[in-house]
Amino acid sequence: MTDNSYNEMFDPTGACRAHYGPYQHWLTHMPEDLLSRKRREADLLFHRAGITFTVYDDESGTERLIPFDPLPRIIPAHEWTMLEAGCRQRVQALNAFLDDIYHGQRILSEGLIPAEQVLANPQYQLAMQGVTLPHGIYSHISGVDLVRDGNGRYCVLEDNLRIPSGVSYMLENRRMMMRLFPELFTHNRIAPVDHYPHLLLETLRSSTPIDAPCVVVLSPGRYNSAYFEHAFLAQQMGVELVEGQDLFVSEGRVRMRTTAGPRVVDVIYRRVDEAFLDPLAFNPDSMLGVPGLLSVYREGGVVLANALGTGVADDKSIYPYVPEMIRFYLDENPILDNVPTWQCRDPEQCRYVLDHLGELVVKETQGAGGYGMLVGPAATHAQIEEFRRRLKANPAGYIAQPTLALSSCPTFVEAGIAPRHIDLRPFVLSSLQGVRMVPGGLTRVALREGSLVVNSSQGGGTKDTWVLEEDVSKPEAPSC
């Protein structure tokens, strides 16, 4: 290792960690040219399957493959048990928070979160005030981004409650690994993830009291960057993939156009931003939504997953308060802590950030995909000064965090096997049956040497994530 990050595979003495032992033995006997051929085979198969994404600021507008790394990230059983409990706890508290701010607003009246940070938030939906949702669930599908600091401690970097994406890559990465290296799954007890579509369909069906509900996946269309995922999940669940033009409102219900005539839709798994969902209520120029959808939704005629207004809970300016939400709503101490965060809306904290821009990571509170952020240690003087001007002009639009030495995992790059920084996004499903997860998640990897930005839009790739079904090592990684 060339930095002070936590190495997932090797301890500080250079010895292989026990849970990586069988894999290391296999890897040392694997010819490097064979790994190269396997990766080329994976790229070809992904391309044939249409597993691509679009980078919107790319002038060419071309679709790209998300680079796939054939070296997995391995998590021992005891670590996963802790991570699973922590993610479940966090999502339960966030759903309770959303239900509260659209009803009694207890947490605001108690002064635990400044009311203006919630009620004046651009993601707060006034139309959701007083609307009662089945089981009080707002975020049916959540993504929790986890990182490891230099001491190997897990922390939550951010929450994704609006339209979390990437689960199709988790599933396809596992399928690809099983196709390329079937012997690994014979000799290692790796927990399966292929039942995720079944759990997702159960989650969506149980979100309504209607028996045998009609579930659809609503997509913006084939030009959306995540269209492959929309089509993949619809196919895996055995439900219809629709666009706004396929749906209409009639007699207080949402209906789908079919060759056999209109059919009532009960649950919409929406992959369309809420600003474009209903041109009568939100953006009047939207061609992606369904006129009248909000009215039907408010009256309980259809379920939207995720609910409208969830974005306020994953706003980066609300993120620092999640540990307090856990204590307030669940009367529990957080299992997973946050990364230390400065809120630039606070003048004193903003002064600190401005004085230390070269040391910090600064993010837009409404940003996503790695855009609109500054990684101080990797930025030029000109970039830092430009960001300083932006921060001074709109301090409430930014938060800052220390530059973490994200954990590193062996990765197959052009120069051979080398450490690269990673994160982990487990997917959390909330329903009447409780809060459930499959053992694993999407591991994203920063393929550029020294880079800490793992987003695919910024050149990152993905790995298969193995959760071992039994421990072969002693506990090493407590939470923050």
Radius of gyration: 22 Å
Quote the beta fraction: 15-25%
Overall helicity:
25-40%
On the 0-100 scale, what is the average pLDDT?
92
Q: Give the low-confidence spans.
A: none
Give a quick set of tags describing it.
UCP005522; Dna Ligase, domain 1; 14 helices; 5-stranded mixed β-sheet; Rossmann fold; single chain; alpha+beta; CP_ATPgrasp_2; 480 residues
Strand and helix layout:
Blueprint lengths: L20 H8 L3 H17 L3 E3 L8 E3 L2 E8 L1 H25 L4 H4 L5 H5 L21 E8 L5 E7 L6 H14 L1 H6 L8 H10 L9 E4 L8 H11 L2 E3 L4 E4 L2 E4 L6 E3 L1 E4 L22 H6 L4 E3 L5 H4 L7 H9 L6 E2 L3 E2 L3 H9 L4 E5 L8 E3 L5 H13 L4 E5 L5 E6 L2 E10 L1 E5 L2 E4 L4 E4 L15 E7 L13
Parallel strand pairs: 3-23, 5-13, 6-7, 6-11, 11-12
Antiparallel strand pairs: 1-2, 4-5, 4-20, 8-9, 9-10, 14-17, 15-16, 15-17, 18-19, 19-22, 20-21, 22-23
Helix pairs in contact: 3-12
